[in-house]
Amino acid sequence: MVEVMNIFLLQTVLLVFIQLFLILILSPFINTLMKKLKALLQGRIGPPLMQGYYDLSKYFQKETVVSNQTSPIFLITPFVVFSATLLASLLVPTYITITPLFILGGIILLVYLFGLARFFMAQAAMEPGSGFCGMASSREMMLAMLIEPVLLLSLFVLALMAKSTNLPNIVNWLSIQGIHLFTPTYVLAVIALLIAGIAEMGRVPFDNPETHYELTMIHEGMFLEYSGKLLGMMIWASWIKQLLILSLLANFIFPYGYSASASLPILFTGLLFYFAKVVIVCLIVVLVETVIAKVRLFRVKDILIASFVISIIALVISISKDTGGLGL
Amino acid sequence: MNEAILLQFSFLLFIFGAISALTLNFFSKKLSIVCSSVIGIIGSSLSLISSILILLHKSKLVFSLYFIKPIGPLELIVDPLAAFFILLISMLSIPVLIYSIGYLQAEYMEKNVGVLGVLYHLFILSMILVVCAANAFLFLFLWELMTLISFVFVISDTKSIESQKAGFIYLLMTHIGLAFLLFAFLIFAKYSGSFSFSSFQSVSHGLPNNLKSILFIFMLIGFGTKAGLIPLHIWLPEAHPAAPSHISALMSGVMIKTAVYGLLRFVFDFLSPFPYWWGLTLAVFAIITAMLGIIYASLENDLKRMLAFSSIENMGIILLPLGIGMIFFAFDQKELASLCIIASLFHSLNHSLFKSLLFMCAGSVISVTHTRNMEKLGGLIKLMPQTSMFFLVGALAISAFPPFNGFLSEWLIYQILFSSFQIHSQAVKIFAPVCGALLGFTGAICAATFVKAFSSIFSAMPRSHQPVHAHEVSLSMRLGMGIPAVFCLFVGIAPFAIMPLLQSASEAVIHTNIKSNSFFANNLLINLGANHFAALSPGLIFALLVFFFTMFYFLCKMVGNKMPIRKDETWSCGVTPKAEFEHTPTGYSQPFGVIFRELYTPESFYYKYIYLPVVNGLINISHRVKPIQSGNLQLYLAYIFITLILCLVWLRL
User: H/E element holding B476?
Assistant: First the structure.
């Protein structure tokens, strides 16, 4: 009994480390990949694929200058944001249907961990007393108000189909449905989730990560007073968050090709499938970015309300077709 | 019977504390404050211990006072449900009393502190007795006493016209609520022939269904007024800010929770079985209250009014699982219903912790800066580092972020909303997940509200001369804020310490026990039929957050650039940064105002469309009745004569 427990513990620790390593290493690459794909679609050459790592190493070499108005909260925020995001990464299934720590929590914890990170970011942005940071902070919180219900409802619809709020259970349930998966409920819920996911990542048409005008940027605007290592941590954390949402979308849109067990070759194919799925979702996001322009700030509400309505329609369909407790 | 003796002793101590506050005031104000507070702390600790013992032993205490013929036996009964609310009251009373030692000395030395001390003790005592009362007459008497004492606190600032107005609205609204409760009790008494709660309970099955629904509506209006359910909330944002801050902490922390007690006691004990639309009605009002309450809070610049609106929001969040629990109960899902009650009580406990903490922090800020306007504050984090940390803890807890306590109760509420798929009603199946999304909506607005509050009070530079000379508050005030702050974190990491208490209280309402496999030793696990599975590990979340934080903090120090962090001016397009360049609280909430344009209704909306029509109607009716009141004596004699004849005729028939 003790030995079984030990093996279980060992496996868990191993899976935790693989997951953390994967997310930490892959996130700068995926961000650069999106930039590259976008550049290619727009007929530009784009940055080299290793640009994300170059950027990070540059940030860590630079001197850190902070505003003299700030308190220690400003200095610890990058680490709070980074740890909350990293903790969230243990909840999201990537290449394998079980997450390393399934006991930790489910979709609600995921959304609230992002919320915790956002709270500290928005607070830190107010610390230096700069007008630009403050504006970005207020706009980010406004966007969060609109995104959170949409994200939660679309996740709720998918969770109701699987009758569990734990992400591995949901993904597992989706993966064993086969062809019966493609019901109107599922399709609508995934569309709503895609819209909410793009908004949560802070990409066009909601926010533009490429812009460097103080008045137009929202998410990046909060980092204006950060520099050096602290800026590096903040940016890395937002890349990680982006990868987590991409993984979530990838696994909900294509619930196939997971490693079923922890043996090495199967793990390897699982990883390959995972990478391919993420790249496809990246392509979708980049295509949306290329053909759609950024909308005006207060028009963002309309898109998100549309997504909310789509989720409600998905819910109503699932209920009206509900026979014998199956959420189809 | 140890619990009984402890509880009686605590009652005596509260009375003794009241007397000592008054008498010692003649000698020295400071002595009066310190002595009565210490006696109050001992009394609260005794009632706290007693309530925990009752909850753990699941015992039931009965104190019979008198038997008055038309009213029935005057009894105090302390069952686990009442004990839970005694726990809430006495748990909060201790830090508030510690806080008040410093707070009264800083703020109220020119006032009559003896009277404040007397009222404080009577306020606590009346709240404890309200939840014990087992007789409608006694209950209403104590309910009224509680209201009147808090009314005196509200108008304690005699110089301000606003607080007098607030007191008037408070008195008016609570008496409308009282009238509805009185109606409900009189109808009950007519059927049962006695005012005692046990007779109410025995007669409940014999009541006609329509009458029961009317009784429920009356209870909802009566208790909803106290709870601040929108649109009955109009007194709350006026009255809570007007009271002294330590009393605001108690009013928001526990007094409005007595409404939750009332609903739990009367609906589940006296009116069951009931149809499910009752629960749906309550839940709909609750979610509207939560949403509108926090939208108002986000646009408010007055610190204490903002906290009062946030209390309205939290009452919505507390009543939401209660409504859903009633739905489950009506569909005979007893286990889920008791989980709902646990969630509701858990959030009541958490809300009293962090809301009292926030009100005490607000009191500290106001006592050193003499303004409640967030526009005029700023930069206090450097002058009051400890107060600002306590406020940050409160802000994180109320925004329901892990690893603090608010997150756990909201997580439970999400889970019970999610379990609604087990109910065979399509309306509920659609309503509950949408409610979940709206709860997320309120959560996000709450976070924004508290980022705005914290940053505009504590961050950056002072925006007026008022915060410039602020200083850290006295030790007793910091201690008073520290205790709830520590408990916010403790409950958030180890909810299992208080889970048995919550379970015991919910068993007193719904006589079923949740299967022991629902809550495991180290994780919060829900496994309630139909494969519904959810897990949460609060301890592990905290441990991992701390681990990641320390690891990356030190890793980051070791790699890369080794130069120390340099401090320099904030970049302000090349000019010297000034406080005027900052984003103000009004500016911060401006985008929220734009997106909530359709939902945001100013205060006058409720007066114009709900209260004024009722008032005008009443005035209209009195105008119609006026002609028969001529003041002529002969006419009145004629009325009496006609009435007499009609009575005789009626009796003859």
Answer: helix B475-493
As a whole number of angstroms, the distance between CA B497 and CA B491 comes to 8
Would you call the peptide bond into B402 cis, given omega within 30 degrees of 0 as the criterion?
A: no
SS3 A212: coil
Best B565, B567, B576, B597 member to test A by mutation, with max A CBs in 10 Å, is: B565
Kindly provide the b/e burial profile for residues B459-497, where b requires at least 16 CB atoms within 10 angstroms of the residue's own CB: bbbbbeebbeebebbbebbbebbbbbbebbbebbbebee
Helix (H, G, I), strand (E, B) or coil at B286: helix
Please tell me whether residue A311 adopts helix, strand or coil conformation: helix
- Amino acid (one-letter) located at B338: S
The b/e string for A57-92 (b: 16+ C-beta within 10 A; e otherwise) is: eebbeeebbbbebbbebbbebbbbbbbbbbbbbbbb
Closest CA to B408 of B288, B528, B317: B317
Find which of A74, A141, A154, A166 to mutate to test the B interface (most B CBs within 10 Å of its CB): A141
Neighboring chain A residues of B536 at a CB cutoff of 8 Å: 104-106, 109
Q: Report chain A's C-alpha Rg in angstroms.
A: 20
Residue with tokens 């007193």: B508
Cβ separation A122–B448 shorter than 8 A: yes
Q: Helix (H, G, I), strand (E, B), or coil: what is residue B88? A: helix
Task: Say whether B535 and A102 touch across the interface (CB within 8 A).
Answer: yes
Nearest residue to B298 via CA among B376, B384, B371, B399: B399
Instruction: Show pLDDT as tens, one digit a residue, over chain A (328 residues).
Output: 567 777 777 878 888 888 999 999 999 999 999 999 999 999 999 999 999 999 999 999 999 999 988 999 999 999 999 999 999 999 898 888 776 676 787 899 999 999 999 999 999 999 998 888 899 999 999 999 999 999 999 999 998 888 888 888 888 888 888 778 888 899 999 999 999 999 999 888 888 877 767 667 788 888 888 999 999 999 999 999 999 999 999 999 988 877 766 677 878 888 899 999 999 999 999 999 999 888 888 888 899 999 999 999 999 888 876 544 443 3
Residues 6+ apart with CB under 8 A from B559: A60
* Residue linked to tokens 């006058």: B604
Distance, in Å, from the CA atom of A110 to the CA atom of A114, rounded to the nearest integer, reads 6
Element (H, E) at B262: helix B258-263
> Which residue in the block uniquely carries the two structure tokens 């990491």?
B493
Q: How many helices (H) and strands (E) does chain B have?
A: 25, 5
CB of A91 closer than 8 Å to CB of A105: yes
Please judge whether A141 and B382 are an interchain contact, meaning their C-beta atoms are less than 8 angstroms apart: no
CB-based contact B428:B420 (threshold 8 Å): yes
* Preceding omega of B231 cis (within 30 degrees of 0): yes
3-state secondary structure at position B535: strand
Contacts of B545 in chain A (CB under 8 A): 83-84, 87
Partner residue opposite A104 with nearest CB, options B410, B421, B541: B541
All residues at 6 or more sequence positions from B515 whose CB lies less than 8 Å from its CB, including other chains = B335
- Nearest-Cα distance to chain A for B364, in Å, is 20
Distance from C-alpha of A43 to C-alpha of A36, rounded to nearest angstrom = 10
Contact assignment for B563 to A64 by CB distance below 8 Å: yes
Q: Which residues contact A56 (CB under 8 A, 6 or more apart)?
A: A28, A232, A235, A236
Q: Name the residue ranges covered by the structural domains of chain A.
A: 2-320
d(CA B494, CA A92): 25
- CB contact (8 A) between residue A141 and residue B447: yes
Determine whether the interchain pair B447/A118 forms a contact, defined as Cβ–Cβ distance below 8 Å: yes
With H, G, I as helix, E, B as strand and everything else as coil, classify residue B373.
strand
ipTM of this predicted structure: 0.94
**What does the alpha-carbon distance between residue B122 and residue A257 come to, in Å, rounded to a whole number?**
68
CB distance A310 to B416 below 8 Å = no
